[in-house]
Design a protein that fits this description.
The complex is a heterodimer.
Chain A (H helix, E strand, L loop, with lengths): L2 H26 L5 H26 L3 H29 L5 H20 L7 E11 L3 E10 L2 H25 L3 H26 L10 H42 L2 E7 L4 E4 L1 H7 L7 E2 H7 L2 H17 L3 E7 L7 E11 L5 E10 L1 H28 L1 H27 L5 H29 L7 E5 H18 L3 E5 L6 E5 H18 L9 E8 L3 E7 L28 H11 L3 E6 L5 E8 L7
Helix pairs in contact in A: 1-2, 1-7, 2-3, 2-7, 3-4, 3-5, 4-5, 5-6, 6-7, 12-13, 12-14, 14-15, 15-16
Chain B lengths: L6 E5 L3 H13 L3 E5 L2 H7 L6 E6 L7 H10 L6 E5 L4 H9 L4 E4 L4 H34 L2 H10 L5 H8 L3 H15 L4 H11 L11
Parallel strand pairs in B: 1-2, 1-3, 3-4, 4-5
Helix pairs in contact in B: 5-9, 6-8, 7-8
The chains are: A alpha+beta, B alpha/beta.
Chain lengths: 611, 212
């Protein structure tokens, strides 16, 4: 056992180890620059091959064997050249393509010619063998070689490789990656020159030593590998940091019941974080698609989502929607979702990315508030009806009185001679008419006084609403000696609204107007209700001829519990404004120039009427 | 039971109610006339007519109480029966004080309505007769000369001819002549009767300066 027997296998083993590690990195890690790792692995394996053959050469005893080994060595040498060129290309991320192609082509050409030509024309043709002695008295086989014409081509290929490496390193250096450029480029060039020169010295008999081919290359591999490993280390560190920050984000997301999602707009595939999966009741590994996600959404809300997604994809506006989901075996949940679309280089929508959050509690709280608001609105309606009770009774009394008199007239006529069936039919018709009228009064009252769970939004003619309320207030107007003027728009403004809610607002405004004119002499009490259509809105204006609203309190009149009436609750205007705003409308007050106050309510026109 | 030409006037803003009331009253043999508001009734100028008024208390424009005021001022002899939808006590008190014949609540039953109308028409007849009487007296008063009128105002104070003569600065004999003419023109035979007619016609007794 001498040092040659010890060192060479060690170096070979080191090369193989390095090669295998980087081969693994190439295959396992989806890191950027993995092709550089592949080239590195190939060059390491090539160097191992070169080292093995060199070891065999040192022990070769006959010329034929030596020549065969020399021939075989050309394969790993070529592979190493090509791998180095490739490594340079990938490590420095590009360069002069033609140079790389030329290096590879020339190397392959060299190999092909070398194999094709007569042995004595080959690159390094061993002419004779002799035994030499080197450090430590170790004996080894050394060949006298002669260079064939193919050597010239090989030299060109080698030189081109060096030029290519230098050129690529310089580019990288200029681009700011100085350290990598100097270390990798420098060492490749340095070690290529060293091995070439030393091989020449050995071949020309100047140095009586083995080629020591493997050692400079091992050093080169270590230099290159160090840089590559740094990248891997950096990637691992980044991955660790990423993992850490992902854990933190996930923790925060779970705490906020926030989930992240990403959807490939062109495909079906949907990706979601663990917290989003928990929210929707998906198993952690369950494959997700858009349709699987939609199956969790309650059917009524699916179109809502589709619409929002389409708008987002089409216009690029933010995706924002609230919908209900039904996770398996869990109660209904409200989800708030936001996101945006990301486009590819061509500007086509590629992915949508966003968050989902559990808003069930907020929705519930909101529903409770809505419930309370409805309750207050109901109480206020009922109390207003209470104030109007006398008039409403009168309103009901009129048809009842007519019915009674008609019925008594009929009874009387039955006993009188000359009464015809036509006379009686006429009376019965009138009785039916008045009965219906009484029924309508009761119906109007009942709808206003009933406790209601939901607002039934329907398409309503604002003029009809005003007329309805005017009819309801008819007796009150007469009793209070107030003249009512209706100026209804010929445009028949239609709105989408809750009938009872808008009637309540109108009732409130009209009763307020009557109250405001209480101290006026009766011929000056004029209540005007006007409807009109401006391009986008339906407008109702209720004005009186009273003293108007003091400027100082004008800003406060819509506040809850604000009242100027002795027995007022101060809820009427507050509720009226809440109702109007719940319809997306406005309710404002002003003093008229000619005296008196005016309240203006605007509502969105029903879609089909909006111009 | 009702005089010739007695009409029940119905004033109510509710068409249906007007029609039904008129229809009911017709079956009881009453002539009716309907008005949809106070102004229409006033415009018809019916103050001296025979009949009564069935009047809705609450009406737009001029309301029932206001119409009553106007009719009282015009010395309308038709009694007013108020109809109201609500038991409004202050209004009913006002109406009764102003001389309303009755105050009925809607829906009004046949019987009380007919009773009220019956009573009102009797009252109307009485008022009309009284009015006719007073008009006759006033016509007679108007036929007196100035001096005779003067003498009459003294006569109804119960003064003697002599006193009257002294008060008016005329001879007792002249007073006697005037007295005979007054009694003749007024169609009475005694001073007591003259006093009653003057009270009805609203002729005030003269204020005498000299007490007997």
């Amino acid at each position: 056992m001498n040092w040659i027997d010890l060192l060479w296998p060690m170096a070979i083993a080191a090369c193989i180890t390095l090669g295998v590690i980087h081969l693994q990195i190439t295959m396992r890690l989806r890191v950027r620059g993995r092709w550089a790792h592949l080239c590195f692995a190939l060059s390491a394996l090539a160097v191992a091959g070169i080292g093995s053959i060199e070891l065999a050469l040192l022990r070769a005893e006959d010329l034929g064997n030596y020549r065969r080994l020399m021939n075989a060595a050309e394969f790993p040498i070529s592979l190493m050249m090509i791998a180095l060129a490739g490594f340079t290309w990938f490590y420095f991320k590009g360069g002069r393509r033609w140079m790389m192609v030329a290096v590879i082509t020339l190397t392959l050409l060299t190999l092909a010619i070398h194999l094709a030509v007569d042995p004595h024309l080959q690159i390094r043709h061993a002419v004779s063998l002799r035994s030499a002695e080197t450090f430590g008295g170790v004996r080894f086989t050394l060949a006298q070689t002669q260079n064939g014409p193919v050597t010239a081509i090989e030299m060109v290929a080698n030189t081109l490789l060096i030029v290519f490496v230098i050129d690529s390193s310089l580019r990288s250096w200029r681009a700011g990656h100085r350290r990598g450029a100097a270390l990798v480029g420098g060492s490749i060039v340095f070690f290529l020159l060293v091995t070439r020169s030393y091989a020449a010295l050995v071949e020309h008999g100047v140095a009586e030593t083995p080629y020591f081919f493997i050692f400079p290359f091992l050093a080169l591999l270590l230099a290159m590998g160090r840089e590559l490993s740094l990248d891997v280390f950096r990637a691992v560190r980044l991955a660790e940091q990423l993992g850490e920050s992902e854990r933190q984000v996930d923790l925060a997301a779970r705490a906020a019941t926030l989930g992240f999602w990403r959807w490939d707009v062109r495909g079906e595939e949907l990706w979601a974080t663990g917290s989003a999966r928990v929210l929707f009741g998906f198993a952690p590994a369950e494959p997700l698609t858009f349709s699987v996600f939609m199956s969790r959404v309650v059917p009524e809300d699916r179109d809502l989502i589709r619409g929002a997604v389409e708008r987002c994809v089409a216009s690029g506006e933010e995706y924002e929607t609230e919908y209900r989901i039904q996770p398996p075996g869990a109660p209904l949940r409200w989800i708030g979702a936001r996101g945006r679309v990301e486009r590819d280089a061509a500007g086509a929508p590629a992915i949508m990315r966003g968050v989902v959050i559990d808003i069930t509690e907020r929705r519930q709280a909101q529903m409770e508030v809505d419930g309370t608001r409805k309750e207050i609105a109901h109480v206020s309606r009922v109390s207003m009806m209470g104030e109007l009770a006398g008039s409403l009774a009168h309103e009901l009394n009129q048809p009842l009185a007519a019915i009674l008199s008609n019925a008594q007239a009929a009874r009387r006529m039955l006993a009188l001679p000359g009464t015809t069936m036509d006379d009686l039919r006429e009376i019965v018709d009138d009785i039916i008419k008045d009965d219906k009228r009484a029924g309508e009064v009761i119906h109007r009252l009942r709808t206003l006084v009933q406790r209601r769970e939901h607002m039934d939004v329907e398409r309503l003619n604002l003029n009809d609403l005003v007329r309805d309320v005017a009819r309801l207030l008819n007796s009150e107007l007469v009793a209070r000696n107030v003249e009512l003027e209706l100026r209804l728009s010929p445009g028949q403004p239609h709105v989408r609204a809750g009938r009872v809610e808008i009637q309540q607002v109108l009732l409130n405004l009209m009763v307020n107007a009557m109250d405001a004119m209480r101290d006026l002499s009766s011929e000056r009490r004029l209540l005007t209700v006007e409807t009109s259509v401006n391009p986008e809105r339906a407008v109702v204006r209720v004005s009186d001829t009273g003293p108007g609203i003091e400027e100082a309190i004008l800003p406060s009149i819509f506040r809850p519990f604000f009242t100027t009436k002795q027995n007022g609750l101060g809820m009427g205007l507050a509720i009226s404004r809440t109702i109007t705003e719940a319809h997306g409308g406005t309710l404002t007050a002003e003093n008229r120039t000619g005296g008196g106050a005016a309240f203006t309510m605007t509502l969105h026109l029903a879609d089909e009427d909006a111009r | 039971m009702n005089g010739p030409g007695a009409t029940v006037h119905i004033v109510d803003d509710d068409a249906s109610l007007r029609k039904s009331l008129a229809r009911l009253l017709k079956t009881h043999g009453y002539a009716t006339e309907v008005f949809e508001n106070a102004a229409a009734f006033l415009a018809a100028d019916l103050a001296g007519r025979a009949g009564c008024i069935v009047l809705d208390l609450h009406m737009p424009g001029l309301d029932g109480l206001k119409l009553q005021e106007r009719l009282v001022a015009e010395e309308c002899t038709m009694p007013i029966i108020f109809l109201t939808g609500r038991g409004d006590i202050p209004s009913s008190v006002r109406a009764m004080k102003a001389g309303a014949a009755d105050f009925l609540t809607k829906p009004v039953d046949e019987e009380p309505l007919l009773q009220a109308i019956g009573k009102a028409l009797v009252e109307n007849r009485r008022r009309n007769e009284e009015r006719a009487q007073v008009d006759a007296i006033r016509r007679r008063v108007a036929a007196l000369t100035g001096r005779e009128h003067e003498v009459m105002r003294h006569l109804i104070t119960g003064a003697l001819n002599k006193q009257i003569g002294s008060d008016l600065d005329i001879a007792e004999k002249t007073v006697k002549v005037h007295r005979g003419r007054v009694l003749e023109k007024m169609g009475v035979s005694s001073i007591a009767e003259l006093v009653r007619l003057c009270a009805l016609a609203g002729v005030a007794p003269a204020r005498t300066t000299k007490v007997p």
